[in-house]
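Researcher: First entry.
Model:
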Amino acid sequence: MPSAEEMDALSAEFRAAIHEIQELTDSLRDGSAGLLEEVRAERDYLRQAREREADELAAAARAGEHGPARRELQRRLDRAQTTWRAVMSGQDEHWSAVEVRAEVVGDARRAIDDLEKADPGFAETYREIAPLRADKEPGEW
């Protein structure tokens, strides 16, 4: 059985270790709070940039800069007659939605083709999962 002096020494070491752990925990908590704030700020910045880009694209569509299908679709979006979700899912069967959906799918297909050419690893992975979607219509992914 340890003596009283040994117990006091062990107790002091234990308190010092607990204090060190608390300081480390506080430091980690402060650091993670700072990182969380940075992530929030970056997320807000990206959200605002995405909203600005969407507003610019909508204004260009209204002005007819992207053709009649985009102009008509934007008119329908502005009047809440449809949503992008309905357009891209295939629920919206209006001619403007059909044309814009085909355009977006074509753009995505070209982007995937470019990625496959540039990155064989991506191509291999994509080809493993792509057949699972082969029976889907555009927008059903």
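Researcher: Second entry.
Model:
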Amino acid sequence: MNRLAQRKTRLIFETEDCVFERSQNRHIIIEARPAHCCLRLKGGRKRFAVGYAEIYQYAIELAEKREARRRKKGGAR
């Protein structure tokens, strides 16, 4: 596995997930950069920079909330 900083080409990909904005469903475009990634909607110009550590922390929070909801439901399987 190579580091993102060592890539010679840009890494940009379109997700299958869509967001409804300006009366259309628009796919999310991710531009991976060494220190962060930029998110934007296909056909849009506005970009949002998000650090990889922030994404990781948010994923942990989501997992903890799901687990708490599952336990609260009574399914402590």
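Model: Note on the second entry: The longest helix spans residues 52-73.
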